[in-house]
Description:
Blueprint: H1 11-21, H2 30-35, E1 46-50, E2 53-57, E3 60-61, E4 65-66, E5 69-71, E6 80-81, H3 83-99, E7 105-107, E8 130-134, H4 145-150, E9 157-158, E10 163-164, H5 171-181, E11 186-191, H6 193-202, E12 213-215, E13 222-227, H7 252-258, H8 283-289, E14 348-349, E15 358-359
Parallel strand pairs: 5-7, 11-12
Antiparallel strand pairs: 1-2, 3-6, 4-5, 8-13, 9-10, 11-13, 14-15
Helix pairs in contact: 3-5
Amino acid sequence: MLSGSRSRLSLATLGLVAALSGPAGAQTPAKELFGSEATPSAGPPQSIGFYSKGCLSGAMEMPKDGPTWQVMKPSRNRAFAHPTMIRFLQRLSGDAAREAHWRGLLFGDMAQPRGGPMKDGHASHQIGLDADIYLTEMPTRRLSPHERDTMPLPSVIDKRTNRIDLSRWRPEMLKLIRTAAREPEVERIFVHPGIKEQLCKTAGRDRAWLNKVRPMFGHDYHFHVRISCQPGSPNCQSQESTGKGDGCDKLDWWFNVALRPPPPNAKPWKKPPPIFMAALPKACAAVLNQPAAKGGAVMAASPAPSLPQPPPPVAAAMSDDFDDNAQPAPIASPAPPPLAPATSTPAYAPEPPGGLPMPRFRPAR
């Protein structure tokens, strides 16, 4: 019988032993090990490995509320990142309010408490330098945890054409993405090819920032921000350069090939095999074994403004497309009414009984 500290081995440690020593068929996928960790490690902040094959030491958690942001999907426990990323997102939310007239940002997935592969959704988001930002504006009140998990997040893409849905697109969305792309820390911004096409059409003469905006499957109701490897992370693997040009002359393949239905004789798509610990940097095993950070390592933030509190829960969860090519279910939307003052009217109006609260888009200025 085990005693002392050996008897208190964590699930992650036990799984790690099996992953490193057992036969291939008995290995535990790394996503199970990292997905079972509920708290960040006490080690120094370090991004280890590559964006899609690595882990994160010394992560910070984004406060769920700030003056110009709210964190969504709390049940996923993916609001962790490198401290530089947390500071960047907080600063970006303020810049977006000033420069893009964006009331506030809704943050989606960042990374798990210790990074690493996720059980579902993302291939990247593993080293604390990726974050999803929704193209739905922050409401004028604080959302409940239930609402944050279930609120519909409408696509801005017409599913029939894979082009932008002009009834949902607003000029402020271009300003928001441009504001993020101009930040020096930003390496990439991933958007649906239809969004990239719309940005190319309407960017005007200032086009240098478009170089960072890259087309990607999914990403039709949010954009994905990726920042560069940070000092103090010697094992962080950087991306290749995006080269020169705005990338607007390279979209034909997406619309003519990638986004078209596969031919009848095409081989069925096979899900990639899981990643095991042996495929990750060796330092990731140590990250799993590190003690938990005290207090959850939440990054301090400016006090959030006092906003109206939400009504009781009203709906079940809605599916999410994450980084794959699935599209969210189409949502009928009424014509957007004029924006109400931020201090008087909730940002969401109820649908008929049984429906989800529908985000109201502001009319274009």
